[in-house]
Specification:
By secondary structure, this protein is an alpha+beta fold. It is 22% helix and 26% strand. It binds coenzyme A.
Length: 239
Amino acid sequence: MAPQGPIAASVGRERSPEVGAERCSASDRPRPRRSSVQDDREGEPSATPPLPVADTPSFKVRPARFDDLPGIVALQRAVIAEGTWFIAEPDELGNPDEDMRARLTMARAGRGLVLVAESTAGRMVLRGPPRAPLGWIVVDVGQYRRTRHVGRLEVMVASRARGAGVGRALVEAAMAACASIGVTRLTLAVYAHNTRARALYAALGFVEEGQRVGEYRMPDGAFVDDILMALQVGQGSLR
Ligand SMILES: CC(C)(COP(=O)(O)OP(=O)(O)OC[C@H]1O[C@@H](n2cnc3c(N)ncnc32)[C@H](O)[C@@H]1OP(=O)(O)O)[C@@H](O)C(=O)NCCC(=O)NCCS
């Protein structure tokens, strides 16, 4: 389902790709504030301590709950249906409900993160499930003892909410929460053509560690490189 509903006007301004492509670090909009606001997971016991929650006047970032899953999956389907940003095509998604539930279960046990950005202006960005998020971020923690310090990051923001600081707030909140789950290294892979995502990660300190040339073949036959990025969280460089 494609995002159709209106986004609260206060969430942010639209930014054209042309303008955004020229500016990778400076921003004239207010930065999301970090706070130590407790999350609102009433009645849901969790092994994880309260996570940092980022707030702005128009949206907040908080740990996901199980009742967020329909909205999280709806957003995932909508972004994948755009066909531009992720590897899977809509008919290759498998069972995203089960997959996301498993990831949230791990997160609730302190073995990962699932955070959502939700509008605080009382408007929904997507039609469909109630409280559909503006965006979400998942950090999957390595499953082996030798990889448990590594978190693999995946983030997406609803198309109509992009360019308003939601993505930055999600990644910053995940970075701030890494210590609580024992993650000291965040990694991700991004299409070479995804200039907005690459600019966001670079602005937050991620470095490009590698490139897999022609890793993907797009529906039009074009080959696209995969860019591997990483951030040492709270540790400085490993080299
Ligand atoms: C990539 C994505 C998560 C970024 O979230 P966002 O809310 O649109 O980004 P923000 O508004 O927080 O902008 C953060 C940074 O991105 C960069 N950016 C934003 N808009 C941009 C544009 N149009 N062009 C180039 N860079 C841009 C800037 O560096 C910006 O930094 P600033 O805060 O200093 O201005 C979001 O656009 C998205 O979900 N895209 C589709 C899915 C996707 O690509 N996911 C990542 C896969 S690896």
